[in-house]
Amino acid sequence: MKPIALLVALATTAALSACNDAQVASRNLSQAADNFEINRRVVFYNGITGDYMLSIEGLCSLDADSSRKVSITCKTGPSTFKKHYLGLSDNVTYFIEQLEPAGVSTFHYKVVFKPSVILPDIVVK
């Protein structure tokens, strides 16, 4: 192993070892959801009227940024996806419900290597 890779691995291990069981389980659940392994329901609602504005269910990953924009990417088939964008306001918010329990370890971190990210598809036009 190269010295830099070894240092990164040791630093990561040291940083992660300071977590408690709940933090490890939470991180593993989040990573599983981001890899489209957990069914979720995302509901957007109006806090003033109490009305649900939108509900999205399925194998979905959520990404929120500091500009009050939310994007939700859902896997709809073996290699098909849908992406939804929503904006939050003072009276519109959301919550995410995990629809089924998922088994994750509280003792081991889940690490996912995706070689396809290193060598992406190249399209020549």
Detailed description of the structure:
With 125 residues, this protein is an alpha+beta fold. It has a domain at 33-99. It is built from three helices and five strands. Strands 4-3-2-1-5 form a five-stranded antiparallel β-sheet, with no helix packed on it. The longest helix has 14 residues, at 3-16.
Q: What Rg is obtained from the alpha carbons, in whole angstroms?
A: 18 Å
Strand arrangement within the widest β-sheet reads: 4-3-2-1-5
| Total beta strand runs | 5
- Derived from helix and strand composition plus strand pairing, the structural class reads alpha+beta
Largest sheet: 5 strands, antiparallel
Taking pLDDT < 50 over at least 5 consecutive residues as the criterion, the unreliable ranges are: none
Q: How many alpha or pi helices?
A: 3
Helical residue percent band? 25-40%
Which range does the strand content fall in? 35-45%
**Helix-strand string:** HHEEEEEH
First and last CA, distance:
39 Å
Q: What best-fitting shape do the alpha-carbon axes yield?
A: globular
Calculate the mean pLDDT score and round it: 81
Furnish the topology, listing elements before pairings.
Layout (H helix, E strand, L loop, with lengths): L2 H14 L4 H14 L4 E8 L5 E13 L4 E9 L2 E8 L4 E7 L16 H4 L7
Antiparallel strand pairs: 1-2, 1-5, 2-3, 3-4
Name the features:
125 residues, alpha+beta, 3 helices, 5 strands, 26% helix, globular
In short:
The chain contains three helices and five strands; from the N terminus they run ααβββββα.
